[in-house]
Amino acid sequence: MSTGKRLAKRSILGTRVACCLEDGKYYAGVICAVKTMDDGGPTVYSVRVEGERRAREVRESDLVGSGFTSVGSVKLRVGQRAYITHNNREVCGTVLYHRPNIDEVLISVTNPETGVRQDVKKRIEDIRLLESRKSARLADQDTDFAKLADMSTDRKERKPSQTIDVPAPTSGFQGSRKRRSSRTEEDQMDECAAAMVLMKLSCSPRSPVLPDGVMGDSMSPGSSVSSGVWTWADGSFSSSSSSSSSRSPAHRSATPSPPLSESSPATLDDGLELDESLFDDAVPRKRRSSTRTMFKCTWTGCHEMTAACDAIERHIRSTHLGREEVTSDHSDSDSDDEDDHEEEFYWTEVEVNVTTWVDPCEPLVTPTAPPATPPAHPVLGAPQKVLTIPPTTVIPQPLGTTCPSVLPQPTSPQYIHVSSPPTLSHMDMARPPHEASSPAASLSSSWPRTSAYLSSGRAKVRVSSSPKASPGRGKRNGESRKCRKVYGMEQRDLWCTQCKWKKACSRFGE
DNA sequence: ATTGCCGGGAA
DNA sequence: TTCCCGGCAAT
Ligand SMILES: [Zn+2]
Q: Where are the compositionally biased (Low complexity) regions (predicted)?
């Protein structure tokens, strides 16, 4: 009554959180009760830490998770167990150090395949303190099993991400909503299992894979927080679907064999066909008419553009993500052993007028490109007119087609922006954006990278044959990325009011 | 299973 | 009026 105050409705009971214990490290647990002192006292949470019997009572400030402190704002102790996405699978590691000042965390992980221990640098935002519900995931494609299973399939240059299968979010924690389930998951599992079998057959029973005690040291004394990250290796396959989910590790489009029909963006500079037969059969091979697909860096303020997506990814990796190729210069197309392919989130395909660029193999910069590329990690979400593409770089949309599912800004479907960034960034979005005025402002400038989850993974532009509009009820035809979808449940406060009320969206109404 | 949102209802 | 949600249609 009275004072409008709306509590986040969802019950936090049952929410998985990381709880800071006496040793200063965080351990996974579940909230089982909340005790709030009505007289202004601090709220006390009763958390059952995994591996312990009794629940312990902790203060809010000792919790990390959705609705609480975000990982980004805590200092991790040495020895803290952490989960990161490495080579497309979640691995568990131990923090070697955490330097908040430069936002860098060094984690020691062990590669399940090689058994080699490796130190990985991550940003705090890319780190989870809780294990994802679905961990283990093979990178497929060029992992061993892929070779075993079908090595004939691809021999040529392959690109990490063709399809836009959405991966996920980051911010390891969860509230109460479950993430979408991908059906490919099963496939992968199967293949994975098959692979394991193969490997088992061809290797010694106790294959080099996964050295038992991956991190036998410096962990909690008696708490078995783990439950095995690489579950598949343990033999426990139970795909539990506990209520508290979490992000699923970012994984790429996996399916190796089937010829992907759509959504296979251009590949390499020379003569590989792209899929644009869909929108305009231009450039079946080389530059033909007058446009051509280029790969443009979408990093805020950066205008780098290259002809090969390979190149743009390299650019992004080194310039923006600050990662250098860890692995020895692999010949050209396999064992991508770097990190999760975060670089893929920062480029987009663009149709370029062929006359404006010269060398197909060399990265080039748009004429107006400001030399000032942010040196360090620029803060995402600080909008600064990103897509200020000079007229030459973008082609107008061919027909009165809709440009669905890409730009959240419905107002100017003038430019087709062949999309690609398959997923959103792995930024943590635990708290409401400190952005300028309206979230819409930030949106209009770029991808909704502030968004948490882009649920249905499909981001490829596609020309639908007929504009078809039936404003009846339910849903509009193909397009429907409204606040809910764009921001996800987790960021409900960013939705427009109408959406919050389950009414017709006013922001993306169109 | 998820998303958009109408219609209805409580505060 | 503001806010919330059941439930249905369309994916
Ligand atoms: Zn809305």
A: 238-255, 435-448
